[in-house]
Specification:
about 290 residues; Creatine Amidinohydrolase; about 30% helix; binds zinc ion
Length: about 290
Amino acid sequence: MSKLSRNDACWCGSGIKYKKCHMDQDERLETLALQGIPIPDRTMIKTEEQIQGIAAACQLSKKILDIVSEKIGPGVRTIDIDQWVYDYTVMHGAYPAPLNYRGYPRSTCTSINEVVCHGIPDETPLLEGDIVNVDVTTILDGYYGDMSRMFLIGDVSPEARHLVKVAWECMHIGIEQVKPFNRIGDIGYSIEQHARRHNYSTVQDFGGHGVGLEFHEDPFVQHFGVRESGMVLVPNMVFTIEPMINQGTHRVKTLADGWTTVTADGKLTAQWEHTVRVTNNGVEILTA
Ligand SMILES: [Zn+2]
C-alpha cells in the first residue's frame, strides 16, 4: 500500500487531508500489526455513503421482522412467513438476500426449537410452545442489512423462555464490547461467559460476519473465545453479532438438505442477531 503524505486527501474518500482524517488511526494500527495483532484492511472500513445505504437496508429488515411479529402465531406455516418476507421486501424495491444464495430456495430462514440456523421454510405449522428464529437479510440499493429475532409461539415452557431471554442478553452483552480498539475476542469471550453462567453452551461452527457490501464479508465474529484476542475494531467496521445459545452441547449437525442445522443432542437453541457499526466512541445498532 502506497504511503500517503500528511497533506494528501485521505484514502477513505472523505475529501479531508490525511493528517486530519485516518492518519493517526493508521499509525496506531501499524504499531499493533508489528506486534502481530490482526488489523482490519481498508476494505472493512465503510465510507459514510456506504454506511447510509447499509443503515437503510438494516431498517427495512427490522420493519419486515416487525410485520412478522404482528402476524406470527400458532398454526402459521413457516412458508407463510417466507411469503410475507418476500412480498414486503420486493414491495419496498428490495430483494431478499437468502433467495437463490448458493442454491438456497427461500427468502428467509426459519429455525424452530432444536434447529440452530438455516431452517428452510416449509408447510410445517408452528405449534403452541415452539420457539422460532426468523432471519432476514435485505438487499436495498446494493446494500445488505441482516437481522434475526426469536418468537415465542403461544404458551412456551419456562425453560424455553429462559433460553430465549439469555440468548438475547448474550447478544447485547456482545454488542456492549464493540468500541474502537477493542478486539473481536472481547465480544466472543463476554458472550460465552454469560451463556456459561446459565449452564448453556455457545455454537462455534457458525458466527457473526462482516456485512454491508456483500452478504458475508470478513471478519468472522466468534461468539466464544479469549479476551484481547482476534482482530482490532475501528470505526465504520460493520458486522453482525448473532450468538446461537444451546441448552445442551455446543455441537451441531447439518441435515441432508445441506442447510438445516440442528443441535447434536436435539435440545433447544436460541439466537438473536443485530447488524452493528463501530462508531468513534462505541457502537451503533443499525437494525435497532
Ligand atoms: Zn479518512
